[in-house]
Amino acid sequence: MMDLRDLRRIHPYLWEIPAGYREDMRIPCRIFASKEMLEEIVKDRSLEQLVNVSALPGMQKAAYVMPDVHEGYGFPIGGVAAAAWPDGVISPGGIGYDINCGVRLLKTELSHQELQPHLRRLGERLYMAVPSGVGKSGFIKLSKEHLDKVLEKGVPWLADMGYGGEEDIDCIESRGCLENGDPSAVSSHAKGRGIDQLGTLGAGNHFVEIDRITHIYDQETASAFGLFEGQVVIQIHTGSRGLGHQVATDHIKVLLGAMRKYGITVPDRELACAPLTSPEGKEYAGAMAAAANFAWANRQAITFFIRKTWHEVLGDQGGHLSLLYDVAHNIAKVEEHRGEDGVRRKMAVHRKGATRAFGPGHPEVTPRYRNFGQPVIIPGSMGTASYVLAGTESSMELAFGSCCHGAGRQMSRHAAKRAVRGERVRDDLHQQGIQVYSGSMAGLAEEAPMAYKDVDAVVDVVEAAGIAKKVAKLRPILVIKG
Amino acid sequence: MQRYRYLEHTADVRMLVEGSELPSLFSAALEGLNGILRKDSGTLPRQPEEEARVELEAVDETALLVDFLSEVLALSSIRRAVFFQVEFSTLDGRSLYATLHGKRVDGFDEEVKAVTYHEAEVKLTGEGDYRTVIVFDI
Protein backbone atom coordinates (compact mmCIF):
# COMPACT_ATOMS: atom_id res chain seq x y z
CA MET A 1 0.00 0.00 0.00
CA MET A 2 1.33 3.42 -0.94
CA ASP A 3 2.01 5.87 1.89
CA LEU A 4 0.13 9.16 1.53
CA ARG A 5 3.33 10.95 2.57
CA ASP A 6 4.87 9.87 -0.75
CA LEU A 7 2.38 12.09 -2.56
CA ARG A 8 2.72 15.82 -3.18
CA ARG A 9 -0.39 17.99 -3.28
CA ILE A 10 -0.40 20.19 -6.42
CA HIS A 11 -3.83 21.65 -5.72
CA PRO A 12 -6.83 20.45 -3.66
CA TYR A 13 -7.85 17.92 -6.34
CA LEU A 14 -4.54 17.00 -7.95
CA TRP A 15 -1.75 14.96 -6.36
CA GLU A 16 1.62 13.85 -7.64
CA ILE A 17 3.90 10.91 -7.12
CA PRO A 18 7.27 12.44 -8.08
CA ALA A 19 9.36 10.70 -10.74
CA GLY A 20 11.97 9.92 -8.09
CA TYR A 21 9.59 7.71 -6.07
CA ARG A 22 10.86 4.61 -7.85
CA GLU A 23 14.07 4.30 -9.81
CA ASP A 24 12.52 3.09 -13.06
CA MET A 25 9.91 5.90 -13.34
CA ARG A 26 10.38 8.04 -16.46
CA ILE A 27 7.67 10.58 -15.63
CA PRO A 28 5.68 11.57 -12.54
CA CYS A 29 2.22 10.18 -11.78
CA ARG A 30 -0.73 12.48 -11.12
CA ILE A 31 -3.98 11.64 -9.38
CA PHE A 32 -7.21 13.62 -9.65
CA ALA A 33 -8.97 13.10 -6.31
CA SER A 34 -10.11 14.77 -3.13
CA LYS A 35 -8.15 13.93 0.02
CA GLU A 36 -10.97 11.65 1.20
CA MET A 37 -10.97 9.78 -2.11
CA LEU A 38 -7.20 9.47 -2.06
CA GLU A 39 -7.36 7.79 1.35
CA GLU A 40 -9.57 5.13 -0.26
CA ILE A 41 -7.58 4.91 -3.50
CA VAL A 42 -4.34 3.95 -1.71
CA LYS A 43 -6.05 0.88 -0.25
CA ASP A 44 -5.80 -1.13 -3.47
CA ARG A 45 -2.90 -1.39 -5.93
CA SER A 46 -4.10 1.31 -8.36
CA LEU A 47 -1.23 3.66 -7.64
CA GLU A 48 1.44 0.95 -7.77
CA GLN A 49 0.02 0.07 -11.19
CA LEU A 50 0.18 3.74 -12.20
CA VAL A 51 3.84 3.86 -11.17
CA ASN A 52 4.44 0.80 -13.37
CA VAL A 53 2.88 2.69 -16.30
CA SER A 54 5.23 5.62 -15.74
CA ALA A 55 8.15 3.22 -16.31
CA LEU A 56 7.10 2.26 -19.87
CA PRO A 57 9.40 3.40 -22.70
CA GLY A 58 8.65 6.78 -24.26
CA MET A 59 6.00 7.93 -21.78
CA GLN A 60 5.33 11.68 -21.93
CA LYS A 61 4.70 14.39 -19.33
CA ALA A 62 2.82 12.39 -16.65
CA ALA A 63 0.69 9.27 -16.14
CA TYR A 64 -2.75 10.15 -14.78
CA VAL A 65 -5.61 8.53 -12.94
CA MET A 66 -9.12 9.87 -12.61
CA PRO A 67 -11.14 9.93 -9.36
CA ASP A 68 -13.07 6.78 -10.38
CA VAL A 69 -9.81 4.80 -10.41
CA HIS A 70 -9.56 1.22 -9.22
CA GLU A 71 -7.12 -1.62 -9.63
CA GLY A 72 -7.00 -3.20 -13.08
CA TYR A 73 -4.56 -5.29 -15.10
CA GLY A 74 -1.41 -3.54 -16.27
CA PHE A 75 -2.86 -0.04 -16.18
CA PRO A 76 -5.29 0.83 -13.39
CA ILE A 77 -8.88 1.43 -14.52
CA GLY A 78 -9.24 5.19 -14.84
CA GLY A 79 -5.72 5.57 -16.25
CA VAL A 80 -4.43 7.89 -18.98
CA ALA A 81 -0.90 7.85 -20.39
CA ALA A 82 0.68 9.01 -23.63
CA ALA A 83 3.62 7.45 -25.44
CA ALA A 84 5.85 9.45 -27.77
CA TRP A 85 4.87 8.96 -31.41
CA PRO A 86 6.37 7.22 -33.31
CA ASP A 87 9.18 6.26 -30.91
CA GLY A 88 7.08 5.12 -27.93
CA VAL A 89 5.19 1.93 -27.28
CA ILE A 90 1.64 0.65 -27.53
CA SER A 91 0.35 -1.60 -24.74
CA PRO A 92 -2.93 -3.56 -24.75
CA GLY A 93 -2.81 -3.23 -20.95
CA GLY A 94 -3.41 0.50 -21.42
CA ILE A 95 -6.62 -0.13 -23.34
CA GLY A 96 -8.17 -3.14 -21.63
CA TYR A 97 -9.81 -6.35 -22.75
CA ASP A 98 -13.06 -4.66 -23.71
CA ILE A 99 -11.64 -2.54 -26.51
CA ASN A 100 -13.69 0.62 -27.10
CA CYS A 101 -16.09 -0.08 -24.33
CA GLY A 102 -17.98 3.19 -24.37
CA VAL A 103 -21.23 5.06 -23.95
CA ARG A 104 -23.58 6.83 -26.30
CA LEU A 105 -26.54 8.97 -25.44
CA LEU A 106 -29.68 9.32 -27.55
CA LYS A 107 -31.88 12.37 -27.17
CA THR A 108 -35.65 11.99 -27.37
CA GLU A 109 -38.18 14.73 -28.05
CA LEU A 110 -40.37 13.60 -25.15
CA SER A 111 -40.62 14.61 -21.53
CA HIS A 112 -40.77 12.08 -18.71
CA GLN A 113 -44.48 12.79 -18.26
CA GLU A 114 -45.22 12.14 -21.92
CA LEU A 115 -43.37 8.82 -21.88
CA GLN A 116 -44.66 7.55 -18.54
CA PRO A 117 -47.87 5.84 -19.82
CA HIS A 118 -45.86 3.87 -22.39
CA LEU A 119 -42.88 3.01 -20.19
CA ARG A 120 -43.79 -0.51 -19.19
CA ARG A 121 -44.54 -1.64 -22.74
CA LEU A 122 -41.44 0.10 -24.02
CA GLY A 123 -39.27 -1.67 -21.43
CA GLU A 124 -40.67 -5.08 -22.31
CA ARG A 125 -40.16 -4.49 -26.02
CA LEU A 126 -36.66 -3.05 -25.64
CA TYR A 127 -35.62 -6.02 -23.52
CA MET A 128 -36.55 -8.27 -26.45
CA ALA A 129 -35.04 -6.00 -29.13
CA VAL A 130 -31.58 -5.64 -27.57
CA PRO A 131 -30.27 -9.10 -26.68
CA SER A 132 -28.48 -8.98 -23.33
CA GLY A 133 -26.78 -11.52 -21.10
CA VAL A 134 -23.90 -13.92 -21.51
CA GLY A 135 -22.90 -14.84 -25.07
CA LYS A 136 -26.28 -13.89 -26.59
CA SER A 137 -26.53 -13.72 -30.39
CA GLY A 138 -27.81 -10.63 -32.16
CA PHE A 139 -30.41 -10.21 -34.90
CA ILE A 140 -27.88 -9.13 -37.52
CA LYS A 141 -26.45 -12.12 -39.36
CA LEU A 142 -23.05 -11.06 -40.68
CA SER A 143 -21.18 -13.01 -43.33
CA LYS A 144 -17.40 -13.23 -42.85
CA GLU A 145 -16.95 -10.66 -45.63
CA HIS A 146 -19.36 -8.26 -43.98
CA LEU A 147 -17.68 -8.72 -40.59
CA ASP A 148 -14.43 -7.65 -42.25
CA LYS A 149 -16.21 -4.54 -43.58
CA VAL A 150 -17.37 -3.67 -40.05
CA LEU A 151 -13.82 -4.14 -38.75
CA GLU A 152 -12.35 -1.98 -41.48
CA LYS A 153 -14.95 0.75 -41.83
CA GLY A 154 -17.01 0.79 -38.62
CA VAL A 155 -20.17 2.88 -38.43
CA PRO A 156 -19.99 4.50 -41.90
CA TRP A 157 -20.27 1.03 -43.50
CA LEU A 158 -23.13 0.02 -41.21
CA ALA A 159 -24.89 3.31 -42.00
CA ASP A 160 -24.55 2.55 -45.72
CA MET A 161 -26.30 -0.76 -44.99
CA GLY A 162 -29.27 1.19 -43.62
CA TYR A 163 -28.51 1.17 -39.88
CA GLY A 164 -27.88 4.89 -39.47
CA GLY A 165 -27.03 8.13 -41.22
CA GLU A 166 -24.52 10.96 -41.55
CA GLU A 167 -26.18 12.73 -38.63
CA ASP A 168 -25.13 9.78 -36.41
CA ILE A 169 -21.60 9.53 -37.80
CA ASP A 170 -21.00 13.21 -37.11
CA CYS A 171 -21.72 12.67 -33.40
CA ILE A 172 -19.37 9.75 -32.76
CA GLU A 173 -15.81 10.09 -31.51
CA SER A 174 -13.53 9.63 -34.55
CA ARG A 175 -16.73 9.47 -36.65
CA GLY A 176 -17.12 5.82 -35.67
CA CYS A 177 -14.09 4.57 -37.55
CA LEU A 178 -10.35 4.36 -36.91
CA GLU A 179 -8.78 4.28 -40.35
CA ASN A 180 -6.05 1.80 -39.48
CA GLY A 181 -8.59 -0.95 -38.63
CA ASP A 182 -7.04 -4.10 -40.09
CA PRO A 183 -9.29 -7.18 -40.35
CA SER A 184 -6.30 -9.35 -41.27
CA ALA A 185 -4.76 -8.64 -37.83
CA VAL A 186 -7.88 -10.06 -36.12
CA SER A 187 -7.66 -13.82 -35.49
CA SER A 188 -10.25 -16.38 -36.56
CA HIS A 189 -10.93 -17.00 -32.84
CA ALA A 190 -11.74 -13.31 -32.36
CA LYS A 191 -13.95 -13.23 -35.42
CA GLY A 192 -15.62 -16.46 -34.28
CA ARG A 193 -16.41 -14.93 -30.88
CA GLY A 194 -17.81 -11.74 -32.42
CA ILE A 195 -19.53 -12.66 -35.66
CA ASP A 196 -22.98 -13.19 -34.12
CA GLN A 197 -22.66 -10.46 -31.45
CA LEU A 198 -23.27 -7.24 -33.39
CA GLY A 199 -26.24 -5.49 -31.77
CA THR A 200 -25.87 -7.22 -28.39
CA LEU A 201 -25.24 -5.71 -24.95
CA GLY A 202 -23.41 -8.54 -23.19
CA ALA A 203 -23.39 -8.92 -19.42
CA GLY A 204 -21.57 -7.36 -16.45
CA ASN A 205 -21.92 -3.62 -16.15
CA HIS A 206 -23.29 -3.11 -19.66
CA PHE A 207 -26.77 -1.65 -20.01
CA VAL A 208 -29.39 0.30 -21.89
CA GLU A 209 -30.89 2.91 -19.60
CA ILE A 210 -33.72 5.39 -20.06
CA ASP A 211 -33.13 8.55 -18.02
CA ARG A 212 -34.74 11.90 -17.44
CA ILE A 213 -32.80 15.12 -17.16
CA THR A 214 -33.32 16.45 -13.65
CA HIS A 215 -31.01 19.43 -13.69
CA ILE A 216 -29.29 21.69 -16.20
CA TYR A 217 -26.07 23.29 -14.91
CA ASP A 218 -25.08 25.20 -18.04
CA GLN A 219 -28.05 26.41 -20.07
CA GLU A 220 -26.10 27.69 -23.06
CA THR A 221 -24.14 24.47 -23.55
CA ALA A 222 -27.22 22.33 -22.85
CA SER A 223 -29.11 24.19 -25.58
CA ALA A 224 -26.23 23.65 -27.99
CA PHE A 225 -26.28 19.95 -27.07
CA GLY A 226 -30.09 19.84 -27.55
CA LEU A 227 -30.79 19.00 -23.89
CA PHE A 228 -33.57 20.36 -21.68
CA GLU A 229 -34.86 19.75 -18.15
CA GLY A 230 -37.42 16.92 -17.95
CA GLN A 231 -36.25 15.48 -21.29
CA VAL A 232 -36.04 11.72 -21.70
CA VAL A 233 -32.69 10.44 -22.94
CA ILE A 234 -31.30 6.94 -23.50
CA GLN A 235 -27.81 5.69 -22.65
CA ILE A 236 -26.16 2.66 -24.24
CA HIS A 237 -23.09 1.21 -22.50
CA THR A 238 -21.29 -1.69 -24.18
CA GLY A 239 -18.17 -2.50 -26.18
CA SER A 240 -16.56 -4.84 -28.67
CA ARG A 241 -17.90 -8.02 -27.05
CA GLY A 242 -16.04 -11.31 -27.43
CA LEU A 243 -14.24 -10.05 -30.51
CA GLY A 244 -12.40 -7.30 -28.64
CA HIS A 245 -11.67 -9.54 -25.66
CA GLN A 246 -10.01 -12.07 -27.94
CA VAL A 247 -8.00 -9.39 -29.82
CA ALA A 248 -6.50 -8.28 -26.50
CA THR A 249 -5.76 -11.87 -25.42
CA ASP A 250 -4.15 -12.77 -28.77
CA HIS A 251 -1.92 -9.74 -28.94
CA ILE A 252 -0.77 -9.67 -25.30
CA LYS A 253 0.58 -13.15 -25.97
CA VAL A 254 2.40 -11.97 -29.11
CA LEU A 255 3.81 -8.87 -27.41
CA LEU A 256 5.01 -10.86 -24.40
CA GLY A 257 7.07 -12.95 -26.79
CA ALA A 258 8.33 -9.92 -28.74
CA MET A 259 9.51 -7.65 -25.92
CA ARG A 260 12.90 -9.27 -25.53
CA LYS A 261 13.64 -8.53 -29.20
CA TYR A 262 13.18 -4.82 -28.48
CA GLY A 263 15.04 -4.84 -25.16
CA ILE A 264 11.89 -4.01 -23.20
CA THR A 265 11.26 -5.33 -19.71
CA VAL A 266 8.05 -4.53 -17.82
CA PRO A 267 7.22 -4.93 -14.12
CA ASP A 268 3.90 -6.69 -14.91
CA ARG A 269 3.14 -9.07 -17.80
CA GLU A 270 -0.15 -7.27 -18.36
CA LEU A 271 1.94 -4.26 -19.47
CA ALA A 272 3.32 -6.21 -22.43
CA CYS A 273 4.07 -3.69 -25.16
CA ALA A 274 6.03 -3.09 -28.34
CA PRO A 275 7.30 -0.05 -30.22
CA LEU A 276 4.56 1.64 -32.23
CA THR A 277 6.68 1.21 -35.36
CA SER A 278 7.46 -2.51 -34.82
CA PRO A 279 5.56 -5.15 -36.85
CA GLU A 280 4.00 -6.49 -33.62
CA GLY A 281 3.04 -2.99 -32.42
CA LYS A 282 1.51 -2.07 -35.77
CA GLU A 283 -0.37 -5.35 -35.95
CA TYR A 284 -1.87 -4.86 -32.49
CA ALA A 285 -2.75 -1.23 -33.35
CA GLY A 286 -4.54 -2.46 -36.51
CA ALA A 287 -6.41 -5.17 -34.60
CA MET A 288 -7.28 -2.78 -31.75
CA ALA A 289 -8.63 -0.24 -34.28
CA ALA A 290 -10.68 -3.00 -35.97
CA ALA A 291 -12.15 -4.02 -32.60
CA ALA A 292 -12.87 -0.34 -31.83
CA ASN A 293 -14.72 -0.08 -35.16
CA PHE A 294 -16.71 -3.19 -34.21
CA ALA A 295 -17.65 -1.61 -30.86
CA TRP A 296 -18.87 1.62 -32.45
CA ALA A 297 -20.83 -0.45 -34.98
CA ASN A 298 -22.27 -2.47 -32.09
CA ARG A 299 -23.57 0.65 -30.35
CA GLN A 300 -24.91 1.86 -33.73
CA ALA A 301 -26.72 -1.45 -34.33
CA ILE A 302 -28.27 -1.26 -30.85
CA THR A 303 -29.34 2.32 -31.64
CA PHE A 304 -31.06 1.06 -34.79
CA PHE A 305 -33.08 -1.53 -32.83
CA ILE A 306 -33.93 0.99 -30.10
CA ARG A 307 -35.20 3.46 -32.72
CA LYS A 308 -37.27 0.72 -34.37
CA THR A 309 -38.81 -0.33 -31.05
CA TRP A 310 -39.39 3.26 -30.00
CA HIS A 311 -41.36 3.88 -33.19
CA GLU A 312 -43.32 0.62 -32.85
CA VAL A 313 -44.40 1.51 -29.33
CA LEU A 314 -44.91 5.26 -29.63
CA GLY A 315 -45.64 5.81 -33.32
CA ASP A 316 -45.06 9.26 -34.82
CA GLN A 317 -45.77 10.96 -31.48
CA GLY A 318 -42.52 9.45 -30.19
CA GLY A 319 -40.51 11.72 -32.49
CA HIS A 320 -36.93 11.10 -33.56
CA LEU A 321 -34.10 9.72 -31.45
CA SER A 322 -30.99 11.71 -32.29
CA LEU A 323 -27.47 11.02 -31.12
CA LEU A 324 -25.91 13.46 -28.65
CA TYR A 325 -22.54 11.75 -28.76
CA ASP A 326 -20.69 8.44 -28.52
CA VAL A 327 -17.52 8.28 -26.43
CA ALA A 328 -14.94 5.52 -26.14
CA HIS A 329 -13.41 4.83 -22.74
CA ASN A 330 -11.01 1.96 -23.55
CA ILE A 331 -8.87 2.98 -26.51
CA ALA A 332 -5.51 4.29 -27.77
CA LYS A 333 -5.32 6.99 -30.41
CA VAL A 334 -2.69 9.23 -31.94
CA GLU A 335 -3.41 12.81 -30.87
CA GLU A 336 -1.48 16.05 -30.63
CA HIS A 337 -0.70 17.36 -27.12
CA ARG A 338 1.83 19.53 -25.34
CA GLY A 339 4.68 17.73 -23.63
CA GLU A 340 6.28 18.82 -20.36
CA ASP A 341 8.40 21.27 -22.41
CA GLY A 342 5.23 22.96 -23.73
CA VAL A 343 5.90 21.82 -27.30
CA ARG A 344 2.98 20.26 -29.21
CA ARG A 345 3.69 16.84 -30.68
CA LYS A 346 1.92 13.65 -31.67
CA MET A 347 1.44 11.05 -28.96
CA ALA A 348 -0.28 7.68 -28.68
CA VAL A 349 -2.75 8.43 -25.89
CA HIS A 350 -3.91 5.34 -23.99
CA ARG A 351 -7.21 5.73 -22.13
CA LYS A 352 -8.39 2.83 -20.01
CA GLY A 353 -11.56 3.60 -18.14
CA ALA A 354 -11.15 7.26 -19.03
CA THR A 355 -13.00 9.45 -21.51
CA ARG A 356 -11.68 11.84 -24.10
CA ALA A 357 -12.83 15.34 -23.12
CA PHE A 358 -11.57 17.73 -25.79
CA GLY A 359 -12.21 21.38 -25.11
CA PRO A 360 -13.85 24.15 -27.17
CA GLY A 361 -12.23 24.91 -30.51
CA HIS A 362 -10.54 21.54 -30.93
CA PRO A 363 -10.69 20.52 -34.61
CA GLU A 364 -11.69 16.94 -33.69
CA VAL A 365 -14.86 18.14 -31.99
CA THR A 366 -17.73 18.10 -34.46
CA PRO A 367 -18.53 21.65 -35.72
CA ARG A 368 -21.98 21.53 -34.11
CA TYR A 369 -20.38 21.42 -30.62
CA ARG A 370 -17.00 22.99 -31.34
CA ASN A 371 -17.69 26.26 -29.50
CA PHE A 372 -18.73 24.40 -26.35
CA GLY A 373 -16.37 21.44 -26.01
CA GLN A 374 -16.93 17.77 -26.68
CA PRO A 375 -19.90 16.15 -24.92
CA VAL A 376 -18.74 13.64 -22.30
CA ILE A 377 -21.17 11.02 -20.97
CA ILE A 378 -20.58 9.73 -17.44
CA PRO A 379 -22.88 6.86 -16.47
CA GLY A 380 -23.49 6.26 -12.79
CA SER A 381 -24.61 2.95 -11.33
CA MET A 382 -28.20 1.65 -11.71
CA GLY A 383 -29.88 3.68 -9.00
CA THR A 384 -27.79 6.82 -9.13
CA ALA A 385 -27.31 9.84 -11.32
CA SER A 386 -25.46 10.03 -14.61
CA TYR A 387 -24.00 13.20 -16.10
CA VAL A 388 -23.43 14.95 -19.37
CA LEU A 389 -20.26 17.03 -19.16
CA ALA A 390 -18.34 19.13 -21.67
CA GLY A 391 -14.60 19.01 -22.27
CA THR A 392 -12.55 22.05 -21.28
CA GLU A 393 -9.47 23.85 -22.57
CA SER A 394 -7.72 23.17 -19.27
CA SER A 395 -8.31 19.44 -19.67
CA MET A 396 -6.12 19.62 -22.76
CA GLU A 397 -3.29 20.98 -20.61
CA LEU A 398 -3.95 19.01 -17.42
CA ALA A 399 -4.72 15.47 -18.63
CA PHE A 400 -4.22 15.07 -22.40
CA GLY A 401 -7.87 16.13 -22.88
CA SER A 402 -9.33 13.40 -20.66
CA CYS A 403 -11.68 12.93 -17.73
CA CYS A 404 -13.35 10.14 -15.74
CA HIS A 405 -15.59 7.42 -17.22
CA GLY A 406 -18.10 6.51 -14.50
CA ALA A 407 -18.51 6.01 -10.80
CA GLY A 408 -15.85 3.30 -10.43
CA ARG A 409 -16.30 0.02 -8.64
CA GLN A 410 -15.54 -0.18 -4.92
CA MET A 411 -16.97 -3.54 -3.81
CA SER A 412 -16.15 -7.00 -5.17
CA ARG A 413 -18.82 -8.94 -7.04
CA HIS A 414 -18.82 -11.59 -4.32
CA ALA A 415 -19.10 -9.00 -1.57
CA ALA A 416 -22.00 -7.33 -3.39
CA LYS A 417 -23.79 -10.67 -3.77
CA ARG A 418 -23.21 -11.43 -0.09
CA ALA A 419 -24.49 -7.99 0.90
CA VAL A 420 -27.69 -7.93 -1.12
CA ARG A 421 -29.97 -10.15 -3.19
CA GLY A 422 -30.86 -9.27 -6.78
CA GLU A 423 -34.58 -9.32 -5.99
CA ARG A 424 -33.99 -6.75 -3.25
CA VAL A 425 -32.04 -4.51 -5.62
CA ARG A 426 -34.86 -4.73 -8.17
CA ASP A 427 -37.53 -3.94 -5.55
CA ASP A 428 -35.55 -1.03 -4.07
CA LEU A 429 -35.07 0.47 -7.51
CA HIS A 430 -38.74 -0.06 -8.29
CA GLN A 431 -39.64 1.91 -5.15
CA GLN A 432 -37.53 4.77 -6.45
CA GLY A 433 -39.51 4.67 -9.70
CA ILE A 434 -36.84 2.79 -11.67
CA GLN A 435 -37.99 -0.24 -13.67
CA VAL A 436 -35.37 -2.97 -14.12
CA TYR A 437 -35.25 -5.70 -16.75
CA SER A 438 -32.53 -8.29 -16.28
CA GLY A 439 -32.07 -11.94 -17.09
CA SER A 440 -29.96 -12.53 -14.00
CA MET A 441 -30.82 -11.69 -10.37
CA ALA A 442 -27.23 -12.53 -9.34
CA GLY A 443 -26.03 -10.09 -12.00
CA LEU A 444 -28.29 -7.40 -10.53
CA ALA A 445 -26.82 -7.95 -7.07
CA GLU A 446 -23.28 -7.67 -8.48
CA GLU A 447 -24.18 -4.34 -10.04
CA ALA A 448 -26.06 -2.97 -7.01
CA PRO A 449 -25.52 0.78 -6.54
CA MET A 450 -23.67 0.12 -3.24
CA ALA A 451 -20.94 -1.71 -5.22
CA TYR A 452 -19.92 1.59 -6.82
CA LYS A 453 -18.33 4.82 -5.64
CA ASP A 454 -20.40 7.98 -5.33
CA VAL A 455 -20.67 9.28 -8.90
CA ASP A 456 -21.68 12.75 -7.66
CA ALA A 457 -18.41 13.05 -5.74
CA VAL A 458 -16.41 11.78 -8.73
CA VAL A 459 -17.97 14.35 -11.06
CA ASP A 460 -17.57 17.14 -8.48
CA VAL A 461 -13.82 16.45 -8.39
CA VAL A 462 -13.58 16.36 -12.18
CA GLU A 463 -15.27 19.76 -12.40
CA ALA A 464 -13.35 21.28 -9.50
CA ALA A 465 -10.09 20.09 -11.07
CA GLY A 466 -11.12 21.77 -14.33
CA ILE A 467 -10.93 18.74 -16.63
CA ALA A 468 -14.63 18.88 -17.59
CA LYS A 469 -17.66 20.96 -16.67
CA LYS A 470 -21.15 19.85 -15.73
CA VAL A 471 -23.90 20.38 -18.29
CA ALA A 472 -26.78 18.13 -17.21
CA LYS A 473 -27.70 15.61 -14.52
CA LEU A 474 -29.71 12.49 -15.36
CA ARG A 475 -31.80 10.13 -13.22
CA PRO A 476 -32.65 6.62 -14.39
CA ILE A 477 -36.27 5.56 -14.98
CA LEU A 478 -35.73 2.23 -16.72
CA VAL A 479 -32.71 -0.06 -16.86
CA ILE A 480 -32.02 -3.08 -19.08
CA LYS A 481 -29.09 -5.12 -17.77
CA GLY A 482 -27.26 -8.05 -19.24
CA MET B 1 -3.94 -33.65 -5.73
CA GLN B 2 -5.72 -30.98 -7.72
CA ARG B 3 -7.94 -28.22 -6.38
CA TYR B 4 -9.09 -24.66 -6.88
CA ARG B 5 -10.98 -22.05 -4.90
CA TYR B 6 -12.25 -18.58 -5.67
CA LEU B 7 -10.81 -15.57 -3.78
CA GLU B 8 -11.95 -11.95 -3.36
CA HIS B 9 -11.36 -9.39 -6.14
CA THR B 10 -12.88 -5.90 -6.52
CA ALA B 11 -14.14 -6.20 -10.07
CA ASP B 12 -13.46 -9.71 -11.27
CA VAL B 13 -12.91 -13.36 -10.33
CA ARG B 14 -9.66 -14.46 -8.69
CA MET B 15 -8.86 -18.14 -8.28
CA LEU B 16 -6.18 -20.08 -6.41
CA VAL B 17 -5.21 -23.28 -8.22
CA GLU B 18 -3.02 -26.13 -6.95
CA GLY B 19 -1.86 -29.42 -8.38
CA SER B 20 0.74 -32.00 -7.40
CA GLU B 21 1.96 -32.10 -11.01
CA LEU B 22 1.60 -29.82 -14.02
CA PRO B 23 -1.24 -31.88 -15.61
CA SER B 24 -3.24 -31.80 -12.38
CA LEU B 25 -2.61 -28.05 -12.00
CA PHE B 26 -3.86 -27.43 -15.54
CA SER B 27 -6.86 -29.75 -15.05
CA ALA B 28 -7.81 -27.98 -11.82
CA ALA B 29 -7.58 -24.61 -13.55
CA LEU B 30 -9.81 -25.91 -16.36
CA GLU B 31 -12.34 -27.08 -13.78
CA GLY B 32 -12.20 -23.66 -12.11
CA LEU B 33 -12.81 -21.86 -15.41
CA ASN B 34 -15.73 -24.17 -16.19
CA GLY B 35 -17.18 -23.46 -12.73
CA ILE B 36 -17.31 -19.75 -13.58
CA LEU B 37 -18.80 -20.30 -17.04
CA ARG B 38 -21.46 -22.68 -15.71
CA LYS B 39 -22.32 -23.17 -12.06
CA ASP B 40 -23.59 -26.67 -12.92
CA SER B 41 -20.43 -27.61 -14.84
CA GLY B 42 -19.53 -30.26 -12.26
CA THR B 43 -22.84 -32.07 -12.67
CA LEU B 44 -23.36 -31.75 -16.45
CA PRO B 45 -23.67 -35.14 -18.16
CA ARG B 46 -20.26 -36.01 -19.55
CA GLN B 47 -21.35 -36.50 -23.15
CA PRO B 48 -18.39 -35.89 -25.46
CA GLU B 49 -20.16 -33.90 -28.18
CA GLU B 50 -17.29 -31.56 -29.02
CA GLU B 51 -13.62 -32.33 -29.45
CA ALA B 52 -10.78 -29.88 -29.94
CA ARG B 53 -7.04 -30.21 -30.35
CA VAL B 54 -4.87 -27.63 -28.56
CA GLU B 55 -1.22 -27.02 -29.41
CA LEU B 56 0.61 -24.25 -27.56
CA GLU B 57 4.15 -23.01 -26.99
CA ALA B 58 5.00 -20.41 -24.35
CA VAL B 59 7.95 -18.87 -22.51
CA ASP B 60 7.21 -20.61 -19.18
CA GLU B 61 4.61 -22.60 -17.20
CA THR B 62 2.74 -19.48 -16.17
CA ALA B 63 2.27 -18.19 -19.71
CA LEU B 64 1.43 -21.71 -20.85
CA LEU B 65 -1.33 -22.05 -18.25
CA VAL B 66 -2.84 -18.62 -19.06
CA ASP B 67 -2.65 -19.35 -22.79
CA PHE B 68 -4.25 -22.77 -22.27
CA LEU B 69 -7.18 -21.29 -20.35
CA SER B 70 -7.52 -18.50 -22.94
CA GLU B 71 -7.69 -21.13 -25.68
CA VAL B 72 -10.35 -23.10 -23.80
CA LEU B 73 -12.32 -19.90 -23.17
CA ALA B 74 -12.29 -19.01 -26.88
CA LEU B 75 -13.31 -22.54 -27.90
CA SER B 76 -16.06 -22.64 -25.26
CA SER B 77 -17.45 -19.35 -26.51
CA ILE B 78 -17.26 -20.15 -30.23
CA ARG B 79 -18.59 -23.73 -29.94
CA ARG B 80 -20.90 -23.03 -26.97
CA ALA B 81 -19.52 -25.95 -25.06
CA VAL B 82 -18.06 -26.82 -21.67
CA PHE B 83 -14.85 -28.81 -22.07
CA PHE B 84 -15.00 -31.12 -19.08
CA GLN B 85 -12.05 -33.35 -19.94
CA VAL B 86 -8.50 -32.77 -21.14
CA GLU B 87 -5.98 -35.39 -22.23
CA PHE B 88 -2.40 -34.15 -22.39
CA SER B 89 -0.10 -35.89 -24.84
CA THR B 90 2.69 -33.41 -24.01
CA LEU B 91 2.84 -30.95 -21.13
CA ASP B 92 6.16 -29.55 -20.02
CA GLY B 93 7.10 -26.05 -18.97
CA ARG B 94 7.12 -24.71 -22.51
CA SER B 95 4.74 -26.72 -24.66
CA LEU B 96 1.33 -28.28 -24.47
CA TYR B 97 -0.38 -30.73 -26.79
CA ALA B 98 -3.80 -31.84 -25.66
CA THR B 99 -7.26 -32.98 -26.70
CA LEU B 100 -10.33 -31.44 -25.14
CA HIS B 101 -13.70 -33.16 -24.85
CA GLY B 102 -16.77 -31.09 -24.22
CA LYS B 103 -20.52 -30.99 -23.99
CA ARG B 104 -22.58 -28.43 -25.89
CA VAL B 105 -24.60 -26.07 -23.68
CA ASP B 106 -27.43 -23.61 -24.29
CA GLY B 107 -25.61 -20.71 -22.61
CA PHE B 108 -23.31 -19.60 -19.82
CA ASP B 109 -23.85 -18.07 -16.37
CA GLU B 110 -20.96 -15.61 -16.53
CA GLU B 111 -19.31 -13.70 -19.34
CA VAL B 112 -15.57 -14.20 -18.93
CA LYS B 113 -13.88 -11.59 -21.09
CA ALA B 114 -10.38 -12.93 -20.68
CA VAL B 115 -7.90 -14.90 -18.64
CA THR B 116 -5.24 -12.46 -17.44
CA TYR B 117 -1.55 -12.75 -16.51
CA HIS B 118 -2.28 -10.48 -13.54
CA GLU B 119 -0.85 -12.10 -10.37
CA ALA B 120 -0.31 -15.38 -12.26
CA GLU B 121 2.92 -17.10 -11.28
CA VAL B 122 3.23 -20.87 -11.18
CA LYS B 123 5.46 -21.74 -8.21
CA LEU B 124 6.42 -24.87 -6.35
CA THR B 125 5.29 -24.91 -2.73
CA GLY B 126 7.31 -26.32 0.18
CA GLU B 127 5.33 -29.54 -0.19
CA GLY B 128 6.39 -29.84 -3.84
CA ASP B 129 3.01 -28.89 -5.31
CA TYR B 130 2.41 -26.38 -8.10
CA ARG B 131 0.37 -23.35 -7.16
CA THR B 132 -0.77 -20.10 -8.79
CA VAL B 133 -3.44 -17.43 -8.72
CA ILE B 134 -5.42 -16.80 -11.92
CA VAL B 135 -7.51 -13.65 -12.36
CA PHE B 136 -10.36 -13.66 -14.88
CA ASP B 137 -11.59 -10.40 -16.37
CA ILE B 138 -15.37 -10.48 -16.04
Automatic annotation (TrEMBL), chain B:
Highest rank taxon of the organism: Bacteria
Pfam (any one): Archease
A GO biological-process term: tRNA processing
Keyword Metal-binding appears in the UniProt entry: yes
Annotated SUPFAM superfamilies: MTH1598-like (SSF69819)
PANTHER family linked: ARCHEASE, PROTEIN ARCHEASE
Protein name in UniProt: Archease
Annotated source species: Anaerotalea alkaliphila
